[in-house]
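worker-03 picked up job from queue 'complexes'. Input manifest follows; two sequence lines, order preserved.
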Amino acid sequence: MQNGYYDVTGAMVTQFNRLNVISNNLANLNTTAFKRDDVVIGDFKRIFQEYKEEMPLSDNTKEASKFVNAAMSRVPQVAEHYIKYEQGGIKNTGNTLDFALKREDAFFMVETPNGIRLTQNGSFTLNNEGVLTTKEGYPVLPSTYFQNQQYIVIPEDSELRVDRSGAVYNIDDEIGRMYIVQSDDVKSLTKEGDSLYEFKSTDELTTLENGDLVAQGFLETSNINPVSEMVGLIETNRLVEMYQKVMKSHMNDLNSDAISKLASTKA
Amino acid sequence: MIRSLYTAATGMIAQQTQIDTTSNNISNVNTIGYKKQRAEFADLMYQTMTYAGTSTSATTTSPTGIEVGLGVRPTAIAKQFTQGNFKETGNSLDIAITGNGFFQIQLPDGTTGYTRNGSFKLDSEGNVVNSDGYRLLPELVIPEDATQITIGVDGMVSVLQAGQTETNEIGQIELANFINPAGLHSLGDNNYINTSASGDPIVSEPGLNGLGQTRQQFVEMSNVQLVEEMTDLITGQRAYEANSKAITTSDEMLQTVNALKQ
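worker-03 finished. Artifact:
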């Protein structure tokens, strides 16, 4: 069949993939500290160009052409999937166990059964032993965790207070600091679900200690802007319609005519 | 795709910023010492199809050129340091500044914060502190047996102590001014800190060097004008609607394009 038909098929598949990302963003409009996902759509020839350099055969030779279908020219593909770490709005909840990070590159560290993870969702709670944990029960780590493996424990009948730089006080005594880090390679962070991010190694994490980091009693809302997502939806919708028209032209007009007029078996 | 789809989206996002600013102002209409913010916008950029002045023939040039605009962006959310209204409270530690200047307070991390909020209190040791317990600088301690505190328009603090007939001067309030007060960083809690954009603080007595005077028993209310904010809300909402109309129109035009082929 014509290559054009496969080009728009690939393009339509890409738009459906993009629609998945947009729908996930919209579904998480109200999720605490959710960061928007987005895709970069590149064309196949650019991606193909990147890999072409690795081929052992020289260009423009008969041998190379057996491996290269240069006619598969410009099918759009999802080239990159990235997370936009812009700060969402901050809402005042008044709950002493709610924390909002005031920097877009800061993360809390939590311990999960699968390992240490990062999160920006600061709606914490206390478990039955008084340990500060996330709503799923993962303990929030203090800055001394790697030295003594202890969690942040709030004694009963105490008043937890966390100041702007993350130091934790039991009324007036400092009992530790929250472990707030910054990743040197945000692109390597991947979302794992439950508002958690997986990181490559602790070498890439820098501890943040001073400055305006945490606000107690506030929660960060998602950074989804519904206007941008709606424009993306409109674009996706109209593009899929256009591709559908192209596909119909190929099949119902060109090929159908070719078959009925040229390949007719009537005498 | 049609440019207007993205241009109108920038318009809607800019109006969201406008409404965010306006609602912050409205929520602080009764905050002592609050200075209202104003969102300012600029056009984003232009794509030049034809530069103005290029020649159209051997003897003529194009008088205007063709430039397509691409939307709007916020350029500043500037604090307006106009004077708020005064309210007489009768509290001897309530001070309003008539004119320029900020009170200096000691932030918990040791740095100096600045504020227009002059509603001060005493802590258990007699230090003059603000509502969060941050001390006023230069530090001022009111003696235990003071029965009356007087603060002059030049910031001189005198007290009348029990058993005495004349007042004692116990301290001097100093104010700080900045070349560019709009460049101060808002910490929240009515406090500011200086940045490289605001310049260094110029500290002196009230009434000197362009600083305003201190008026005891008054507080400065916020300078938010509800009428202005309501008008901004209305125009912001209508601009939002108008931009959304541009988006739906672009969508319908794309639908027409798609319907060209049956």
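worker-03 released lock.
Chain A touches chain B at residues 163-165, 212, 225, 227-228, 230-231, 234-235, 238-239, 241-242, 245, 248-249 (CB under 8 Å).
Chain A has a mean pLDDT of 85.
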